[in-house]
């Protein structure tokens, strides 16, 4: 069994519902984002079109972050999900450097000024401190909502079919652009989509074999319109632009100029 996700780029309408669902599910601090949307312009025969890529940890089969971690805080389960044990993480950030997709975030003091800096924590933040505590000085990322999967399968539910065993982002997507299932099952919903619509992974040149696949169709057929540079994941280098803009607004300086604090 290996859990995976298929993202239909043509159906994604940039509503950011998946981003919000992830934030609520995991009580994420202000500057921690596990799911991100990258929007970029594509020149289609003289006409400018906007393409959007929802990205998160790719749960790679051969995960560089796991190999780079000196304490085994980053580890991989039998079902393919890569997790981080905050009790073992020493904040070295080797995994952040090793990840080709830039989908890991170091949780420093600067990333948790509170949703309203200078004011009392909101009820949401206080609840998160009890139900889903985040440890400063450690690295975080998407975990495919492993808690939901484990709790659901323990009750006999099927991830990708039953909502209580399925990642929050998949449940929330109103365009049904996200599909979750077992990549080891040739007849699973995800494998059928990958075969039928020429699914592709990002940055295959790194040999990591991501568990997140992409397709680009709307009403069927086999027409994959994703540009070649997008299929290689070259645009991932611009992944942090939204976070950088937010940092400028709050702190009045460039992130590169800020001192890294644990």
Q: Can you walk me through this structure?
A:
By secondary structure, the protein is an alpha+beta fold. Helix content is 26%, strand content 17%. The chain has one domain: Alpha-Beta Plaits (2-Layer Sandwich), CATH 3.30.70.20. The relative contact order is 0.21.
Regarding CATH, which class?
A: Alpha Beta
Rounded to an integer, what's the Rg over CA atoms?
Answer: 18 Å
Tell me the β content.
15-25%
Instruction: Please give the share of residues in helix.
Output: 25-40%
Shape: globular
Give the structure's gist in a few sentences.
The chain has 262 residues and is of the alpha+beta class.
SSE inventory with pairings:
Elements: E1 3-8, H1 17-26, E2 36-44, E3 47-55, H2 64-68, E4 74-76, E5 82-84, H3 94-98, E6 105-107, H4 123-131, E7 138-140, H5 146-154, H6 168-172, E8 178-182, H7 189-196, E9 212-215, H8 228-232, H9 241-251
Parallel strand pairs: 1-9
Antiparallel strand pairs: 1-8, 2-3, 4-5, 6-7
Features:
disordered C terminus; Alpha-Beta Plaits; 9 strands; alpha+beta; two-stranded antiparallel ribbon; 262 residues; single chain
